[in-house]
Amino acid sequence: xLRYFSPGVWFVVTTAIVASLLVVLxxxxxxxxxxxxxxxxxxxxxxxxxxxxxxxxxPDLPVQVTLMGAAISSRxxxxxxxxxxxxxxxxxxxxxxxxxxxxxxxxxxxxxLTERLHAEGIYDxxxxxxxxxxxxxxxxxxxxxxxxxxxxxxxxxxxxxxxxDVSQIETWDDxxxxxxxxxxxLDGDGRVDRYLLNAAPTSLQFHEVLMLQAGGGYxxxxxxxxxxxxxxxxxxxxxxxxxxxxxxxxxxxPTSGSGPQLIADGYCVGFLAPDxxxxxxxxxxxxxxxxxxxxxxxAWEKGGRRxxxxxxxxxxxxxxxxxFEAAWAYAKQLYLSPDTARRLxxxxxxxxPIKSNWSQPCYDEPDPYFCNQAIGREYIKLAPDVPLRPxxxxxxxxxxxxxxxxxxxxxxxxxHAVSDPDALIAESQRLLERAQEQVLAQMQRNVFxxxxxx
Amino acid sequence: MSSTHPSxxxxxxxxxxxxTVFALITIIPFVWMICAALKTQADFFTxxxxxxxxxxxxxxxxxxxxxxxxxxFTELPVARALLNSVFFASVMSLGATxxxxxxxxxxxxxxxxxxxxxxxxxxxTVVLPAALLLGPGFETLYHLGLVDHYSGVILPGLAPAFGxxxxxxxxxxxxxxxxxxxxxIDGCGExxxxxxxxxxxMRPMISAYLIIVFxxxxxxxxxxxxxxxxxxxxxxxxxxxxxxxxxxxxxSLIMAGxxxxxxxxxxxxxxxxxxxISGLTSGAVKG
Amino acid sequence: MRPARQNSAWVxxxxxxxxxxxxxxxTAWPLIRSMVLAFxxxxxxxxxxxxxxxNFRFMMQDPLFWTAVGxxxxxxxxxxxxxxxxxxxxxxxxxxPDLKGKRLYRLAFFSPSIVGLAFVxxxxxxxxxxxxxxxxxxxxxxFSSWDPDFPWLQNYVMTSLVGATLWLSxxxxxxYFLAALQNVPPELLEAANIDGASSWQRFRHITLxxxxxxxxxxxxxxxxxxxxxxxxxxxxxxETGGNGPENRALTAVTYLYQTGFRNGDLGYASAIGWxxxxxxxxxxxxxxxxxxxxxx
Lengths: 454, 287, 296
Hints:
The structure holds 3 protein chains of 3 kinds. Chain A has 2 domains: 34-148 and 311-379, D-Maltodextrin-Binding Protein, domain 2; 150-309 and 388-452, Periplasmic binding protein-like II (D-Maltodextrin-Binding Protein, domain 2), CATH 3.40.190.10. Chain A is 43% helix and 11% strand. Chain A contains 18 helices and 12 strands. In chain A, helix 2 (41-57) links the parallel strand 1 (34-38) and strand 2 (63-67). The termini of chain A are far apart. Chain B has 15 helices and no strands. Chain B has helices spanning 10-38, 41-46, 67-74, 78-109, 115-124, 134-143, 150-154, 161-174, 177-185, 190-201, 203-219, 222-227, 236-246, 251-271, 273-281. By secondary structure, chain C is mainly α. Chain C has one domain: Orthogonal Bundle (MetI-like fold), CATH 1.10.3720.10. Chain C is built from 14 helices and 2 strands. Chain C has a two-stranded antiparallel ribbon with strand order 1-2. In chain C, a hairpin with a 3-residue loop joins strand 1 (40-43) and strand 2. The radius of gyration of chain C is 24 Å and the shape is globular. Chains in contact: A-B, A-C, B-C. The interface between B and C is large, with 95 and 94 residues.
């Protein structure tokens, strides 16, 4: 019998038997307690600390803090669609929340928290703009984690060495004009290497930051797309001349891989920095201490808004959870406590959305990394000005459509060597009309949302 | 080439040159991967292959370490993923081979009503792209309650139309009818004939197909990605992909993980090259 | 003595049963279901709604769909133009009877095919990085004028994808060509040599026609494989969900995956699947017609 088949076959047969035995003997055990899915390492660290405290008071219902990678969105969505296991608590990022809302309202996988928030008085404690991305069709589906106001993080060492006075900067035009001398060729190849702002036609997240600052955006609070609004048209014209053409002043630094090295080497002067980015740079580039400072964003017009918003996370409780009350209690403990606010700031420089916690002394402490600025207080000062950013199931479509328009407009500026934003208005309008139509076409296709659309 | 030509000629140098250059281009990524897996994070950016130092050949051998591999198996669930990969690949390759061989035998050596219809219907699906069945296949698994279970991946893979085609073809070509007939005349039961006569004769085809399917399942990404949600069930292809998402900046860790995922099938392939290659080309080229 | 005929009736059915049970459940039924799903819209497998021809009408003016199909066609064309000559060329080089180390070369060229697509993607995502990636740093070391920040993955999407696929599959197809070349009757080549034909003439008039069937097969394999190109762009450009910069890495199957499994619309995904299938079947038929006509 043994010689009937080649040794290869017998090898596979043995492996199959051994592997099957192991699989049977080492089964996948569901872990007890509340399962908490997150995607951010810093959040995970913090959550574990609070989970330990929780476990002391609730030993029978521990919180399993599970750090998921890029797979969190697909697992969450598959869980909602196909009843596969999902966590009881899930932190969802701003760019992914739209998918959750793309079906019928009853199919949204998170529990509607609106009434609870009002009944327990929590709604009033929180910075109002922070709720906007997590609200859909009038219902709030999560606790906001943050405010994420955006400031300009700039290389103070380069600026001071060149004798530049940043207090003169009020608008974006001022910024690029005053910082101009810093645009230099660093490696002697005849091309400018150092640019003034970390952005590019393809950095779609930054387009939104700047659009929101200007008063534009993708959707209005009723869920209608506003891609072709007059403000957006004008904003994109300015961006195109920053990104391309003879008046180019920006370049994108990648977030991973060689990015940190490029930052250290001084390839960019200014960065659009929400609080988490400042914290992230502080943690990942210790050698750059004392080289960065923060200032409010240059406004689009004199007296205009000097901040924007970038990113955002919420904590939602899934309908599939069997432990709603416990999960809700833990969520409140994690998000509302002054202790958490303090730790969040100390570890990641993120300011809490809970207004009553803003009086914590930690926000006023000078930060040696940022030349002894009390960056927490600086960010908090901007918190009430943070623009609203409504979510939509079609956020992804809008983002894509706008990105294409932005890239095309930048290419147009490059090809026609345009440096005056006004010269691009017609083209910008054409491209944004097209983007708007694309999004509308997608919206009208969705039969589940059609019934509920205005 | 005529024997009056000298064995050295520029033409031959050129040929060997080309081949060697191409071979090096092909192999270098592997070498790089191995070096990357052994380097520490700091050295990763400073040296291309191995870090320079005072050791033999000017290489700092002492700065290489297996610590990333240790991390893979202790901190991270790569051991489980490895078990899952081995489990899927071995069980599914055996099952697919057995079922295809049985089906191919039935379709090639028996006359029965509906034979032509079944042959055309099953083997005809070979031309269909797998992508067509992704969506409805998932829906079917959901309704059967097999999503996020091992069987959700294993069961659909046990009836590959291509396997049926290969075995039917191979049996038509190399399984003589008289052997089967004489066995029947001797009073052999049909299933004894199958297991003790047919399968051993088809030994080369079985080995070849087994390996092909084994490697194919080992490397398969899209099916486990769609069907399996719990990370404890993920095979290496999905697990390493998740690893990259989580540890995007720890490049040597990712390379170590990739190495662990590639090594088993590479070894298997090296041991069984001939069968693998003959199985691939059978049916495509005569002889 | 047991009459052999009596058992025969149910034996083949028994042998076929395991295969057919699986096949009917997991291939035949989904195939039929996909024909219905193409006319529905869904939010996951739980919630479906009938929408008639809306999926197809939308597809016609869906810019993402056309981008995906366009990219897929361009990729297929590039793959054909690059992979087949390389594979054939390598096979011709290796086919010389007096070549030493043939087994080693064959092993070297074939080994990338064993690496799974997922792992090739991870490997290349690191190799093509600016500055630290193997490709940029090696080129910069060899030619100092080479820009070490050369943006392979950002600006040269198609090149990167075609290059990675070439590395992966040249050896695979080479094996087929080698087997075909070895079946070319040497007497024909000898006769042509005696008649004074040059190498190129021998290749064109004898070798090429002899390997035509395998050439057709490889062409079919390359086309079907390229049309279903998914893992590589999906993993290389995973941060953008497989789209790549300006959607230049979006292929048809990636779009199908996004639609079906990220947005949950299995109906639209099935519709895309069918369009893809029809294109592929059409190509296979056209190829058969052309090869038939050439033979006659």
